[in-house]
Amino acid sequence: MTELSLHGGISIHRIGAMILRYWYLLMSSWPRLLELLYWPALQVITWGFLQLYIAENANFFARAGGTLIGAVILWDILFRGQLGFSISFLEEMWARNIGNLMMSPLKPIEFLLSLMIMSMIRLAIGVIPMTLLALFLFHFNVYALGLPLIAFFCNLIFTSWAVGIFVSGLVLRNGLGAESIVWTLMFAIMPLACVYYPVSVLPAWLQYVAWSLPPTYVFEGMRTLLIEHTFRTDLMLSALAINAVLLVASFGAFLALLRSAKKHGSLLSSGE
Amino acid sequence: MTGNDKASSPPTVAERGSSAAIAVDHLVKVYKQTRAVDDISFSLPRGSITGLLGGNGAGKTTTIAMIMGLVLPTSGRVQVLGHRMPEESAAVLGRMNFESPYVDMPMRLTVRQNLTVFGKLYAVKDVSDRIARLADELDLTEFIDRANGKLSAGQKTRVALAKALINQPELLLLDEPTASLDPDTADWVRAHMERYRKENNATILLASHNMLEVERLCDRVIIMKRGRIEDDDTPEAIMARYNRTTLEEVFLDVARGRVNGAKEAAR
Question: Chain A: which residues have CB within 8 Å of chain B?
Fold first, then answer.
């Protein structure tokens, strides 16, 4: 894998080869497929019933129908998007295949693009059935959000990729000992991204931190849409701008960590 | 410096690199306090088979990893097929390949699926045809549709060799290629490597602990110890220099520090 070079351009064939590799893997393992469906379904059922209960007993939530279950679905797009990216990467580490890829003509940007496409595929397998469950069990139609849903989705998936790229670089540099970061980093973002409550709940100083995270704009935008029936374009554009910075920074960090891994010989010993 | 001096001085890495398959120039790798590779230089002509010998920790794997671009040197230069590594690796990675005990093929994928993925990564033109030919040559047909994780160690080694040959590389780097094979299969693999080199004028750099293998295959041997090159010549010349009849005896002399005694006895 050539480090920084874009010599010869980006090859669709090599990206296709990597997607084929992950597709073969998914199709060869029913537990992997089941897991993609299982957790999102469990989430939506649990939170959906909670939403029903609260709506019956609290006037605010009765008016703001869907904010809780909407938040659950959007949070899952963010979380599963990152996991979909990172698990495909981890599969290479678990299989001790990373050396084969690094020695092949595959470029880092092609590798990362294939991981992004796989995160979309894995997300589709997990989240589409989840949205259908929400529709049939709780009469919450996330697709009724219309065009804003596309803006929410794009911003969340961009953040998930930025986090995925960064943690993959950490694992590449530090080996599988750093694997737990893959599973936990997004949860550190959760309270600050204000998934289930408005930003105004946070102390004033913490609100500055919250507004530095693109998902905060998405969840705030979703609540505005569901409660006030207003789509805040300004929030989405701010999120997009921060996401652009995050994606460039995470790619830079990935290349720096890859270089550091080559310097320290970590690619030869990708275990713990 | 006179003109004569200049003519007799060894060629620079750039001069050697253009014609050599591999040119290594004053290569050093330091990990914290350890000098894993300590100022080594050599160049391998195209079409040659060279054995890299040395005990554990001699620096063989680090040297190969630096040639492949998997490890960055602390200092020194590497040229592969006329291109500087790792700066120009994009120009050569498709023309070389490797096999190493430090990597595996994905376990859940079948042999055919694995070879298909790598064939596409290396832009092999007719992947199915190439896989069929390799399956025939390396006797993979019987288990071509079996998951890699369900193969025996010997079968996995043959699959790894098939992956290393998928792009018909001009340069093949092999780290212990026959380590887990029974003598019959190992002999068969060696015969295949010899044939591959002859038919494709390929260059092979082979790190091995199997001295018989090195004697049989290699037209040149580089012996490493504690990161430095201890000797570098044809197997016959090295055995004569140490007054030994096998490379194994030479290896033991070097490993146990009997180098000077053996060389003097030979004189």
Answer: 1-3, 5, 7-8, 11, 13-14, 16-18, 20-21, 24-25, 28-29, 91, 95-107, 259, 262-265, 267-269
* Tokens representing residue B230 in the block: 């201890």
Residue A2 has pLDDT above 60, yes or no: no
Nearest 5 degrees, angle CA A96-CA A100-CA A104? Answer: 155
Q: Report the residue from B70, B113, B120 with minimal CB separation from A99.
A: B70
**Residue owning tokens 């079948």:** B110
Question: In this model, does residue B86 exceed pLDDT 70?
Answer: yes
DSSP secondary structure letter of residue B225 = E
Widest Cα–Cα separation across chain A:
62
ipTM score for this prediction: 0.85
Give contacts of A24 with chain B, Cβ < 8 Å. Answer: 108-110, 113, 117
Express each pLDDT in A150-199 by its tens digit: 999 999 999 999 999 999 999 999 989 889 999 999 999 999 999 989 99
Residue B158: what are its φ and ψ, rounded to 5°?
-65, -35
- Biggest CA–CA distance in chain B, Å, is 66
CA distance B86 to B100: 19
| Contact assignment for A104 to B118 by CB distance below 8 Å | yes
Query: Are A193 and A222 within 8 A, CB to CB?
Result: no
Contact list, B163 vs chain A (CB under 8 Å): 100
Read off the pLDDT band of B7 (50, 70, 90): very low
